[in-house]
Amino acid sequence: MSEISALNSSLLGIQKGLAGMRKNAADIAKSGPGISTEQLTTSIVDLKANELQVKASAKVLETVDKTIGSLFDEEA
Question: In whole angstroms, what is the distance from residue 11 CA to residue 41 CA?
């Protein structure tokens, strides 16, 4: 995988994770007497999964940044 495709994948992962977090947070915020415990639990678990996706994608982005930086250092 090239650095550019890894960069694109990590950014896409962050965007998807944040979009999922926004959706799950909204579902949790509008929960009330009509929402089941199962629905609320699913939203909370999904929120955590999206958080982990963002963190993992950020780690990929950090690795790409270090790799590209080291390539530039070798060329200089």
Answer: 28
CA-closest candidate to residue 32, choices 43, 22, 21 = 43
pLDDT in tens, 6-43: 899 999 999 999 999 999 999 999 888 888 899 999 99
Place of tokens 């965007």: 15
Return the H-helix or E-strand segment holding 4.
helix 3-29
Name the average pLDDT for the chain.
89
How buried is 76 (Cβ within 10 angstroms: 0-12 exposed, 13-18 middle, 19+ buried)? Answer: exposed
Contact 16, 51 (CB under 8 A): no
